[in-house]
Specification:
alpha+beta, 21% strand, 140 residues, 5 strands, two-stranded parallel sheet
Length: 140
């Protein structure tokens, strides 16, 4: 309804040279350079990307899910996974979930809907599941 009103106002002013020149300034133009990569996205995809970028949404997969136990100390934060363990984690995610996962280095050659798995984790020494504790065993 609003677009019809705008079209009506513009057509009524079609002889107005200043308006015609002003409309040329706001005419959509083809993007170039790195911005052209986003031309094929739908409006909703661009809005979702913006929300994720400025952290306005909570529905992104970023680092964890609920665990049916309790992580116990010793803890080391921001530990980089060795490459072989990182690849095992990617393989596990691809087998366990109905999504496509990739390493940081593989993402450029992956489909657009691929989820990147970071190679940095928080590392715990022990975990309690129910009454059992699993973890590192130190030698005497």
């Amino acid at each position: 309804m609003q677009h019809l009103r705008i079209d009506e106002l513009v057509s009524a002013q079609s002889n107005n040279d200043k308006l015609v020149e002003a409309l040329k300034l706001i005419k959509p133009r083809a993007t170039s350079g790195s911005l052209a990569a986003y031309d094929n996205f739908e409006f909703s995809e661009l809005c979702q990307y913006r929300k994720i970028f400025v952290q306005e949404v909570d529905d992104t997969i970023v680092s964890n899910e609920l665990f049916p136990g309790e992580m116990l100390m010793l803890c080391r934060n921001q530990v980089t996974l060795p490459n072989n363990i990182y690849q095992i984690l990617i393989d596990y995610y691809n087998d366990a979930y109905e999504f496509q996962f990739a390493t940081i280095t593989e993402i450029s050659a992956s489909p657009r809907d691929t989820i990147v798995v970071p190679n940095v984790v928080n590392q715990f020494g022990r975990v309690r599941i129910s009454a059992e504790i699993f973890g590192l065993v130190t030698a005497p």
